[in-house]
Amino acid sequence: MAQKGSTDSARGAHDPSALGGSSPSEWRLVWRRFRRDRVAFVALLTLCAVVAACFVAEPALEVLLGHDGSQPIPAAVDVNLNPAGPFTRVAYTAPDGSAHQALLLLGADGPLGRDELLRLLAGGRVSLEIAFIASAIALFLGVILGAIAGYFGGVADAIVSRLTELLMSFPLLLLMIALGQTVAARFENVTLHGLLQPGVAGLGLIVGIFCWFYPARLVRALVASLKEQEFVEAARMIGASDARIIRQHLAPHVTGPLIVWGTLVASGVIILEASLSVLNFGVRLGTASWGNLLASNWGTLLVFDPGAADGGIYPKPPLLMVWPALILFVTVLSLALAGDGLRSALSPKEGV
Length: 352
Fold this sequence. Notes:
Blueprint: H1 2-14, H2 17-20, H3 24-36, H4 38-65, E1 88-93, E2 99-104, H5 116-152, H6 154-168, H7 172-185, H8 200-209, H9 213-226, H10 230-237, H11 242-278, H12 290-296, E3 304-305, E4 314-315, H13 319-346
Antiparallel strand pairs: 1-2, 3-4
Helix pairs in contact: 1-10, 3-13, 4-5, 4-13, 5-6, 5-8, 5-9, 5-11, 5-12, 6-9, 7-8, 9-11, 10-11, 11-12, 11-13, 12-13
């Protein structure tokens, strides 16, 4: 009994996770630290605004405006296929045959005359869903494999390390182009009863499978250094199982770095989806995403697009390229800044 009490005391003295765990007071302290970082706090508010606009405001705007982003409005383009500009009201006929006035807050998207604002928000929902699915899969696989490799070492460490090095030796974008379409096509119709657009689950799955090795290397390095600490040895002496040691004593120490990596993986997935869509290897063209909006309007920054049906050249507003590029930039930057702020707030070395 004395030995057990002494080891418990040693564990409490050397294991920072034993001082507060995940108690409400500790999370209040983390939140106080985070709020003091004004850049990170503003980034979090910006990220929340983008998510709310894509997932909440977009369906509400469809009801309020009386049309959706996939509905063509012929009156929103003129005879030269010039799309209507921002804050334009045009007449259109609803599918039920009734006449309405459509307010295009950001104008029309091109020759089809679809609402640019609704397509931008709907595309953001698709891009964020892909980022969430891929990041969750990458972190799940990375944490499990990295913890096994770092804690047990030996053959497990060698297998995970060699597999990680093998995958990292391939250019990720080329690997996605070579294998992504074949694998993602098998999950094309997985929509979770209409919650996801066709192709979203498949692309998120394939990106997550090819991105797990980044958090795996991080978790392996942290666990390998922490498993030799005194609080881990004390936990072994009192009979704690390996699963309990990893879950209760090692996991709290990798939470901060994992949050940072989670935001970096999510921002990288958003950029990767945009890159694949520009190359026509992302979600199918009929589905709005930030990458597809960039791909369909890439020529607008050149002012003229030689894609008219009659072989001529018609002008297209450069804003059609600016809007998706701007919101993509803001989202990625907000993810990076918010993640860095959370890392600082979760670090036990940070003062109050």
